[in-house]
Amino acid sequence: MSPVGANLTSLRDHNAAAVLSLIRAAGAEGVSRVELARASGLTAQAISKIVHRLAQDGLLAEAGRGASTGGKPRTMLTLVPEARWAVGAQLGRDTLTVLRADLAGGVAGSRRAPVDLAGWGPQRVLDLLAHEVTELLADLPRARVLGIGVASPGPLDQRAGQLHQVTGAPAWDGLRLRDEVATRLGLPALIEKDSTAGVLGALGSPNRAFIHLDHGLGAGLVLGGAVQRGARTNAGEFGHQTLDPAGPLCRCGNRGCVEAIWAAAPTREAAARVLGEGVANLVMLLDLDEIVLGGREIVAAPELYLRAVREAIADRLPDPEWQPVGVSVAPSGPDAVALGAAGLVLARLFG
Fold first, then answer.
1. Cys-Cys with 250: which of 95, 164, 257, 268 at CB 3.0–4.6 Å?
2. Which pTM value belongs to this model?
C-alpha cells in the first residue's frame, strides 16, 4: 500500500474512532448526527458515511427520536455495548483475575484463581491464564473479541511486551509476556503495569493518579489527559521512592522506600499514614487534583486509607482551598486493574 493510501486509511480510522467515542460518551440518551458533526468538526457527509459503516458493523444503533428544536426531530444514535468484547487480566502475585468487558466498560463476567507467581513460574501461570480466558469466552464467537490486555507487576517494557526483573519473581525476567499470551489464546494482546492499568479502569480528571496497594505499591499517572509511561514505559514506581535512607531494607534492594516503611509499620493506622505522606509528596510534585485508591489493602480498609490520605494532603498543601484534591476508592473494587487492562484493548477502538 502506498504511503498516501496508508495515511488516508489511518485518517478514516481516526475519524471513525472519534465518532464512536462521542457516541459512547453520550450514553443511553444517544446523540444525533448533527451533534456528532458539531462536536467532531467533520462534515455532515463524512458523519453519514462513518455512521453507516459503524451501523453495518453492528457497533451502533438508532435509539428513537430526540426532542424537536423547531424542525424535524433528530434520530438519536447509541452504542451497542455487546457488539464487541475485550478481555482484561491481572497477574497478581497470589491471584489471577480475568474478566470480559463490553464496549461501554461494563463487566459481564469474571473469574479468579489462586496462583503463586514467583513459585510456579511463567509456564504454569500462563497455562492457567489461557484456561480461564477460554472458559470465560466459551459462549462468545471469537470474531467479537477484540483482544486481551494483561496487567502485571513491573518493571516491564510495555512497547516490547517484555518483563524485566519483576520484584521477587526472577523466573519472569526477560519473558516476552505479550507474545506468550497472544500465542496461547490466538488473540491480539497488550501488556501494562498493574498500577498503570488501574488508572485506565475509569474515566476521571486529566491530572490524576491511581495508587495501587497490594503486595507492592505503585502509581498509575495521567497528566494533561495523557497516560504517563516514561522513557522505558516503566513510570509509576511510586513505592520505591526513598523517604528514609536509613530505613528498613526493601525488596528492591534499597532502604527506606515508601513500600518498605509501609510494610514495617506496627499498625494498619500507621501504615495508612505512611501511604498518606507518600501520596502528598506525589500531589505536590505533579499538581494532581484527583487520587484514586485501589488494591487489596485499600479494599480491606477503605475508610481508614481515605482519611489518612486526605489528612496528609490537607496538611501538606500550602493552600488546600485553592488546590482541592479529590480522593476516592476505585469504584470497581478488586476488578479495577483487570478492567483497566481491558480498557487498553478498548482504547484501540475508541482512539
1. 257
2. 0.85
